[in-house]
Each structure stands twice: as C-alpha cells, then as structure tokens.
C-alpha cells in the first residue's frame, strides 16, 4: 500500500513548520518567521520500526496566488489534468517557481494540511489560496494554529474553512501533547474515504510505537535503579592518610557516578522520543534543576517521613542511620556505619536525622580498604523513580515544533511533596522495597521477581502521564 503523504501549506510565522515538526516528531524542521526562507519542498518521513508509515512535506508559500487562481478558473480541460497542465505551463517561469514547487506534491497525490494563525483575521489572499486548494480536488484539512494567549478569530476562520475543506482542526503546535497529535491524525481519516484504511493503519502503528517507547522507558528507569542501589566505591587506606578526607573523596565519587547514570538515563529517554537536536532546557523553578543529592530534592520528592517509616516497617528494609560524619553537606541518611543499621521503629525515633545527618557507610577491610555503598536508605530509590517520571512527563509534552524555552512546569509547591511515588499505595511501595532489598543483597531471583512487578507499575504510571 502506498505511503500516505500530506503537504503542509501556510504562511511564514503562522505555525506551518511547527505543525510539521510536531506531527513528524522531527526537530530538524527549520522554523523561521522570514518569508521566502523555504524555496523547495522537503519531505519528512515518519519511520516506525524502520518502515515509513506516513510522510509530511514542507512547502514554500504561494508566490502569485491571484494569477494562479485566475489561470485555474479559466482552465478548460478535465479536472484530473488541471494540476499537471498548470505545472507544464508554468514550471520554467520564475514568477511561478514557488507555486509550482508547492503544487507538485499535490499533483503527485499528497493530501493537504493548510495551516493558519487563528489570532489574526481572515484576509482576501487567504480566501484566494483556499479556493486554489479546493480546485486541486485533493483531500484537505484546515488546521487553525491556536495561540491561546492572543486574541483570536477562530470563529471567522471556521466559517471560511467550511466552504473549502473536508475537515477543520484547532491545534496548538507548540503545546500539543501526544494525545492531541494522535487526535489530529485520527481526524485525517475523515477527509477522504479512500485514505481511511491506510490512515487507520498509520494511527495503529503510532499507538503501538508509543506503547513500545513507554515500555522501553520503564526498562531504562529499572536499569538506573539496578545500577544505583547496589553501587559502591572503594579505596585503599594508606598509612598516614586522614580517614575523613578519604571518606569525602569516596562520597564525591559515589554521588558523581549516580548522577552520571541518571543523566545517561535522561538522555536515553530524550532520544527515545526523538528530541535529537534541540536540548530540552528545564525551567529554573523545576525540581529537576536541583542536584540529585540536594536537601530540596529530598524534601520535595520521594516519600514523606511517615510513608518512608511505614514502607520500612512493611518491607523490612533498613533505612539506616549511623555514624555522622561532616563532609561539606548533608548525606540525607544515604549511608550507615557497619553495626549502625536500624529498622523502621528506630527510624521513627531519629526523625529528621534521616535528612539532616551525613551518614556514611565506611569501613576498613584488613585495615587497608575503605568502602562507601551500597546505599542503605531506600528513599534514594523513590527519588530516582520520581525524577525519572518527572523527566519523562516533561519530554513527552515538549512539542517538537516548540523552539522557546519559557517556564513550562508549575512552580514547586513549598508545602507538599511533588513526586509520583508519594501517591502510590502501600502495595506499590512494598514492591519498591522488595526490589531495594534484593538489590542490596544481590539476590538474583528476588531481583527478577520484584523488577517484573515494578516494571508493570512503572508502565501503568507512564501511560497515565501520557494521557493527562
């Protein structure tokens, strides 16, 4: 079956390229407010499993719409030959170069997506261009790019479009979610009955591909946990060396490694959703801008003190408060000295010590080796999950056509937890604790069981994020 193609048509600075970039999930589309920047049509294929399922074509704007319409209205031949005849007559005339470039993919069978800025009024030239597109006889949809913050003329555009197009959609190309993108593709099915079967397959392919990416995201988060929780750093303790300085060095090495693994996971999720060129820059107020091991991160992500204590009691996991060592900042209860591990009952007595103390797992082996890790505070697992889910939420809702980096996430609420895991039920937290314990003890069978259970929880959570 022939790959469906759609020519994206519109004026500069009205959202044409942004709509194309978002629909094709391709941030390589050049977006410019300058007329005449696009002089040649360019195809942007959408590949799923290395197979092209649909193609969107960027086109130049009309160059001489009044003369094009006048020629078409005076044309005496058959409708099927209108475009081929026009192209044959005008292709080598400079004054119609852009018009021919725009109409060529339509003559070759592409459908039409005509994009306008709903914040401005309808002009005579717009009506001329609509009539040209109607006369082509191609299946066509009108997309009103809705800039919500500006006064708009959406009603006027809808009235004008009803005379010329098979379908009309309101679409914010810079804020479109995956669900809204899919809705637009769904609506393309209605513009021509002959296109409906192939476009049904396209939508199904998009849905299956998204599910595969969701599952892959869950696998990436699990891989991060499996790397971070059992990780340890060791160093030789030399005669005459100050032990506290070595502990500081090990702690810095440990935290650097975990942060590097988290960054690697975020990069992989970003690439999975095809943000390949433009880096997604998080707003200053985002909790994701905070250092993974900062006190603010641990205050606003992960479980509350009460939830953490209860989770420790249910799961029997060590939450670990031990020897305090001052090393230039709080450890947030990450580590404990040997013999200093306590359970949930002891944790409740320590209270804020979980957050404020710098508790380092450090010990000498044969009097020569010092070790930091594996982590004994299960809060790190919940925080890594929260940060990964927040990053996923941000990535999937950053439209590919967006080129501004305005503040996009809500401000941190100073009186409540901001993560996802704080809303999980006791069974979901118990599974997290089971994985935490299994990773600590390197019990492969238990790791496999708990990983499978947490994977299902993560997939469900990711799916909920995708649809909200």
**Proportion of residues in extended strands:** 5-15%
Largest sheet, if any?
Answer: 6 strands, mixed
Strands in their spatial order, largest beta sheet: 2-3-1-4-5-6
Helix content: 40-55%
Low-confidence stretches: 317-330, 336-363, 405-415
Gross morphology is: elongated
Number of structural units classed as domains: 2
Helix tally? Answer: 16
Mean pLDDT equals 81
Number of strands: 9
The secondary structure category is alpha/beta
Radius of gyration (CA) equals 29 Å
Give the SSE string. Answer: EHEEHHHEHEHEHHEHHHHHEEHHH
Whole-Å distance between the termini? 34 Å
What secondary-structure arrangement, pairings included, does this model have?
Layout: E1 5-10, H1 16-24, E2 42-48, E3 51-58, H2 65-74, H3 82-90, H4 97-107, E4 111-117, H5 124-136, E5 140-145, H6 154-161, E6 167-171, H7 178-188, H8 196-228, E7 233-236, H9 243-272, H10 295-300, H11 305-315, H12 344-350, H13 353-356, E8 364-365, E9 369-372, H14 379-396, H15 426-441, H16 444-466
Parallel strand pairs: 1-3, 1-4, 4-5, 5-6
Antiparallel strand pairs: 2-3, 7-9, 8-9
Helix pairs in contact: 2-5, 3-4, 7-8, 8-9, 8-14, 8-16, 9-14, 11-12, 11-15, 14-16, 15-16
Give your account of this protein's structure.
It is a single chain. This protein folds into 2 domains: 5-194, Rossmann fold (3-Layer(aba) Sandwich), CATH 3.40.50.300; 215-466, no CATH class. It starts with a strand and ends with a helix. It has 16 helices and 9 strands. Helices cover 47% and strands 10% of the residues. The chain has a 6-stranded mixed sheet with strand order 2-3-1-4-5-6, sandwiched between helices. By secondary structure, it is α/β, with parallel strands linked by helices. The chain is elongated.
């Amino acid at each position: 079956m022939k790959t469906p193609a759609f020519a994206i048509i519109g004026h500069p600075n009205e959202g044409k390229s942004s709509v194309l970039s978002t629909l094709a999930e391709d941030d390589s589309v050049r977006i410019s407010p300058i007329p005449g920047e696009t002089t040649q049509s360019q195809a942007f294929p959408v590949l799923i499993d290395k197979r092209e399922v649909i193609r969107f074509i960027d086109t130049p704007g009309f160059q001489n719409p009044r003369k094009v319409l006048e020629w078409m209205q005076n044309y005496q031949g058959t409708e099927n030959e209108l475009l081929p005849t026009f192209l044959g007559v005008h292709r080598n005339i400079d004054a119609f170069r852009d018009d021919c470039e725009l109409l060529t993919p339509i003559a070759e069978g592409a459908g039409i997506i005509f994009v306008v800025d709903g914040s401005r009024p309808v002009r005579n030239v717009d009506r001329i261009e609509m009539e040209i597109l109607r006369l082509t006889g191609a299946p066509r949809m009108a997309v009103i790019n809705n800039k919500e913050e500006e006064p708009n003329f959406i009603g006027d555009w809808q009235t004008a479009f009803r005379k010329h197009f098979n379908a009309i959609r309101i679409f914010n190309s810079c804020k479109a979610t995956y669900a809204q993108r899919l809705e637009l593709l769904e609506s393309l099915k209605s513009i021509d009955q002959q296109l409906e079967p192939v476009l049904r397959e396209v939508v199904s392919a998009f849905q299956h591909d998204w599910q595969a990416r969701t599952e892959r995201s869950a696998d990436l988060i699990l891989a991060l946990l499996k790397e971070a929780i059992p990780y340890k750093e060791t160093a030789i303790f030399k005669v005459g060396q100050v032990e506290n300085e070595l502990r500081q060095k090990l702690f810095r090495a440990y935290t650097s490694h975990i942060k590097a693994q988290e960054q690697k996971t975020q990069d992989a999720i970003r690439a999975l959703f095809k943000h390949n060129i433009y880096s997604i820059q998080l707003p200053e107020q985002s909790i994701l801008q905070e250092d993974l091991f900062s006190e603010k991160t641990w205050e606003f992500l992960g479980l509350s003190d009460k939830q953490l204590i209860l989770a420790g009691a249910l799961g029997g996991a060590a939450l670990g408060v031990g020897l305090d060592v001052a090393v230039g900042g709080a450890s947030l209860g990450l580590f404990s000295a040997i013999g200093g591990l306590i359970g949930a009952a002891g944790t409740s007595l320590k209270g804020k010590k979980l957050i404020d103390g710098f508790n380092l797992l450090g010990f000498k082996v044969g009097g020569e080796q010092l070790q930091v890790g594996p982590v004994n505070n299960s809060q790190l697992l919940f925080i890594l999950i929260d940060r990964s889910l927040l990053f996923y939420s941000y990535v999937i809702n950053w439209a590919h056509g967006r080129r501004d980096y305005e503040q996009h996430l809500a401000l941190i609420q100073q009186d409540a937890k901001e993560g996802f895991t704080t809303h999980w039920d006791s069974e979901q937290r118990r599974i997290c604790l089971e994985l935490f314990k299994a990773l600590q003890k390197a019990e492969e069978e238990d790791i496999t069981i708990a990983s499978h259970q947490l994977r299902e929880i993560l997939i469900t959570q990711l799916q909920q994020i995708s649809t909200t």
